[in-house]
Structure formats: structure tokens, C-alpha cells
From TrEMBL:
<dbReference type="InterPro" id="IPR050266">
    <property type="entry name" value="AB_hydrolase_sf"/>
</dbReference>
<dbReference type="InterPro" id="IPR000073">
    <property type="entry name" value="AB_hydrolase_1"/>
</dbReference>
<protein>
    <submittedName>
        <fullName>Alpha/beta hydrolase family protein</fullName>
    </submittedName>
</protein>
<feature type="domain" description="AB hydrolase-1">
    <location>
        <begin position="28"/>
        <end position="106"/>
    </location>
</feature>
<dbReference type="GO" id="GO:0016787">
    <property type="term" value="F:hydrolase activity"/>
</dbReference>
<keyword id="KW-0378">Hydrolase</keyword>
<dbReference type="GO" id="GO:0016020">
    <property type="term" value="C:membrane"/>
</dbReference>
<dbReference type="Pfam" id="PF00561">
    <property type="entry name" value="Abhydrolase_1"/>
</dbReference>
<dbReference type="InterPro" id="IPR029058">
    <property type="entry name" value="AB_hydrolase_fold"/>
</dbReference>
Length: 239
């Protein structure tokens, strides 16, 4: 594990990362999802793609990369692009899982690999809608401390700046961003994913003109058991 420091818009970041196969001449970058870290991606994919230099990154606020700021997805993309410049890395192949898929799309790589990417707004369950309604109602009357009771356990464990960052990014509609992506895309999905539905994957595949789509048995982390097939398809499908 190593770190590199960078500054974007007067915001300072120490980015934790790890490189596998450092002597390889072609790069593949892995971006994890919200609440995750680079180790999950590394543990799954490092045994494969031996001809590539693997770059695993902890996005700011996750894993061993600290974050003191309220960020947007556009800022996450700019931070990641600047970090890749520090490693003299190309943008040939970027793999993004869940939230990392949105960041990867904005970076506009030559080959985009999406694993159950976030970015398509889906209908919220009724209980979630009710919680949101009461939270907004209480916020209107300045009762912010009470609204914390309506947050999920995962959200409650976040620092305040990461909670505000989460609010910035959770309801983003990437319909236009996917439509505007004109490079090569490989899209992989879990058939039983309840975090980002199979229908969302099919929608993204329809929006990105130069894309291929394949689904596997499994949930949001379907790629853990299907890494060998996915990496073979990446090797055969990149341009």
C-alpha cells in the first residue's frame, strides 16, 4: 500500500492505493462502490489480467483515504483523474463498481467497465419515502438532531461531511452522462441485485451505444464469484 498527495480546488487529499503487476505496460484502474474500499476489488481481481498493471484506489472518505470535505461526483472524478496523472497512467480501462461506475463514466476512459453501476434513479420503497418525508418535515422546523433517527445504521456511521457528500450523490440521475458516453463499454450485472436493479443495467446498456451487456446469477457483489469470466471478457472486449 502507498499514498500520493494532491490538491484540487484548494482541497488537499492523501490517496491510498496499491499497484499489482507494476512492470506491465497496460493499465487497468479499479474504483470501488460507496461504503467499500480498494481491498474488495483487489482480492477479487488481482489473480487475473496478468498482462495489465492493476491500480486499486481508495476514493476519498473510504478505506485508508481520508476526506475532510463535502464532495460531489464531479469532484471525485477530477480527483481520480489528477491522481492517475501522478502515476503516469492512461485512461485505457477503468472498472467501476456501483458508485465507482459513475465516477468512471465521468472520467471518460477508452474502455469503460461497469459492475452493477449506480446512476439510474429507481422508485424508492414506501417505507423509505415515508422516512424522507418526515426527515424533511422536521428539517423545515430546524429539528435536525431528531432527523438523525431516520437515517440508516450505515448512514449514521458516516462523518457529517461524508453524510452531506452522500446526500449530494445518492439521487443523481446519470441518464445524460451514460447517453453521452461514446467509447467502448462492457457492462456486467447481478440478476438478483436489489441495490441497482437488473432493469437499470439494461437501461444503461441501451443508453451507451457501443456497449455489451451480460448478467450473472448473484446480487450486488455478483463479480466475486464470476471474476474469471468477467476478466476473460474484458481481455477479449477492450479496444
Amino acid at each position: 500500500m502507498a499514498t500520493k498527495s494532491l490538491t484540487i480546488n484548494n482541497k488537499f487529499f492523501d490517496i491510498s492505493y496499491e499497484i499489482i503487476n507494476p512492470m506491465a505496460t497496460k493499465d487497468i484502474v479499479f474504483l470501488h462502490g460507496w461504503g467499500s474500499n480498494k481491498d474488495i476489488m483487489k482480492n477479487v481481481f488481482s489473480p487475473y489480467l496478468k498482462n495489465f498493471r492493476h491500480i486499486y484506489i481508495d476514493l476519498p472518505g473510504f478505506g485508508k483515504s481520508e476526506n475532510k470535505y463535502v464532495l460531489t461526483t464531479n469532484e471525485y472524478a477530477k480527483i481520480t483523474e489528477e491522481f492517475l496523472k501522478l502515476l503516469n497512467s492512461s485512461k485505457d480501462i477503468i472498472v467501476g463498481h456501483s458508485y465507482g461506475g459513475k465516477v468512471a463514466t465521468l472520467i471518460n476512459p477508452k474502455n469503460l467497465v461497469l459492475l452493477s453501476s449506480a446512476g439510474i434513479l429507481e422508485e424508492k420503497p414506501l417505507d423509505v419515502k415515508i422516512k424522507i418525508f418526515f426527515a424533511k418535515f422536521l428539517n423545515f422546523f430546524g429539528l435536525k438532531n431528531i432527523t438523525k433517527r431516520f437515517r440508516s445504521k450505515d448512514v449514521n456511521s458516516m462523518s457529517e461531511n461524508m453524510y452531506l457528500t452522500f446526500k449530494n450523490v445518492v439521487n443523481e440521475d446519470f441518464f445524460q452522462e451514460f447517453s453521452n458516453f461514446t467509447n467502448n463499454a462492457l457492462i456486467f450485472w447481478g440478476k438478483n441485485d436489489v441495490a441497482t436493479s437488473l432493469k437499470s443495467g439494461e437501461t444503461i446498456a441501451n443508453l451507451i451505444k457501443k456497449s455489451s451487456f451480460i448478467s450473472y446469477d448473484g446480487d450486488h457483489y455478483f463479480f466475486v464469484k464470476n471474476a474469471k469470466d468477467i476478466t476473460t471478457r474484458i481481455e477479449n472486449g477492450i479496444c
